[in-house]
Amino acid sequence: MTMAQGISPPRKWRNGRVRHSRAAKQIEQHQKSVEEAEMRVVLAQPHRRGSRSQLRENALGRFVEDNGLRMALYNAGREYGALKSKWRAAKGAPMPDRLGGSGADIDAAIVHAWGRTIARCEDAVMGCRSIDPRAYGPAALGYVEWLCCDGKDFPDNGDWRDATCGILVLAVELGTIEQKEVDRRGLQAAYAD
Question: Would 5 be classed as within a structural domain?
Fold first, then answer.
């Protein structure tokens, strides 16, 4: 905290305690009330629902937190979203203003490797019935795109099983969850212990 002009710095009493001037205490109290007011505004935002969690800042984080999923799924979804965004930018696809540059300075071999990784991930998500026979691959891929790449909130009438299976398979494909754990626990591997 910086001291304003005319406010004396803290002094020590003989017993070692610090003595603050009245003006410094008033400034500190005012700053605290301003911070509390800002926090009330932040927590009142509809997507936060009163939660202080940083996960609530995007659609994927809200889905993960609302369904009690593991952080490994969130990390895999963010990694996939960033990879797809970089690949789209390098290919020259129109993008929201999230990335700068044209992508022309990226080596073609790297862009090709990104494309192979994305195709491998999409194929894995399409085959998500291996985890849960009730899951539907095309729907799972659509939910993965919505949550991870487009930043759209999960629809109220959406099938959470398809979305969870899709993100779980994505996490296995990207290496944030081991295949043997999914083989052992099935869809339950997606949930936090």
Answer: no
φ, ψ for residue 130 (rounded to 5)? -65, -25
Q: Where are the beta strands (DSSP E) in the chain?
A: 11-12, 18-19
Residue type, 29: Q
Helix pair 59-67, 160-174: axis angle to 10 deg? 110
Question: Are both 34 and 69 inside the same structural domain?
Answer: no
Q: Which has more confidence, 48 or 147?
A: 147
Number of folded domains that form the chain: 2
Mind listing the pLDDT tens digit for each residue in 40-59? 666 666 555 556 667 778 88
Cα distance between residue 52 and residue 67, in whole Å: 17
The rounded distance, in Å, linking the Cα atoms of 118 and 83 is 8
Instruction: Decide if 177 is inside a domain.
Output: yes
d(C-alpha 160, C-alpha 168), whole Å: 12
Measured in degrees and rounded to the nearest 5, phi and psi for residue 19 equal: -110, 120
